[in-house]
From TrEMBL:
InterPro entries: B30.2/SPRY (IPR001870), B30.2/SPRY_sf (IPR043136), Butyrophylin_SPRY (IPR003879), ConA-like_dom_sf (IPR013320), PRY (IPR006574), SPRY_dom (IPR003877), TRIM/RBCC (IPR050143). This is Si:ch211-28p3.4. Residues 129-333 form the B30.2/SPRY domain. It holds the Pfam family PRY.
Amino acid sequence: EKLLKHQQHLQRQRDAIAYRMKKLAAKQVEITTETVKEKIRKKYEEMKWVLEEDLRITLTQLDTEHKAAETLVEEKIEDCYHLTQELDQELAKIGAEVISEMLKQTDPDLIQTDEFKNEQLLSLTINLLLFIRSQVPVTKKLFQSAADVILDADTAHPKLIISPKGDSATYTETWQDVREIPSRFDNTLNVISKEGFSEGRHYWEVEVSGKTYWELGLTYPSIPRQGREEESWLGRGKESWCVEYFNGDYTAWHNGVQHELPLLAGRQFSRIGVYCSFPGGLVCFLGADTMTPFHCFCSGTFTDILHQALCPGHDNEGTNWKSLQICDASRSAPVL
């Protein structure tokens, strides 16, 4: 009987060891080198995709800025050509002072590129692998020092409601009970920022999701505020630059010149970013969700203080009641 019990005990131990061997064999399959290699290979493929996409966005922005600078040079050459014709025709009527002023305006030295930003871009590209897991485009890093924009309610059209914090503008059919003062827009649905700037680099973002009509941009304080002149609209005069969105179409405006952006037709962005560089004389509009450049204006030099400006647009047949909301640009926008 004792022998039988001992035999049964040994059999149980043998079964336990056999079960353990089975588990170890399963574990051996689980940790095979090929499985680990495949997982690592997939991660590197993801990293490669992020790098290629980031490179594409970065090069696209640089190409856009380059084209804007080339366009400005061509415009200045055209100005010089017209000036030469006028001099040939009316040389006796044009004084030396007028000629000198025109030569100053067409000085090639006024056309600059933002070398500091280019140096930052190169440095960030070299260190890209250090923060690749964040999957944030390099250009976003350049704009992390975002401007603190507060809208000036004393400039807002009476049909706009400005939030107490000055961070949103909402269209309403009701004419607000506000003071009639020279600083207020009384024709177009505009509002500008309280504070302006005259140096450095500035970036801000606005939430535009759910809207079918809006305008965003920058303006000198000299933009017309009163009357029916079209120059009080953003981008229609020399004083302002803007991008306009209306029913799926994007258009860039400055000095009354319209630049249609057909490659963006039908695309929707939750945020729009506006970047301005005083050293480079640059105004650039971007889809902040993916840092996709819309259009860049290369102005050479700015001649006055700049203010952020926006227009939330009318109700557009009941489709455009949402507010334009100024965002915290340090936080990423959701990609649509």
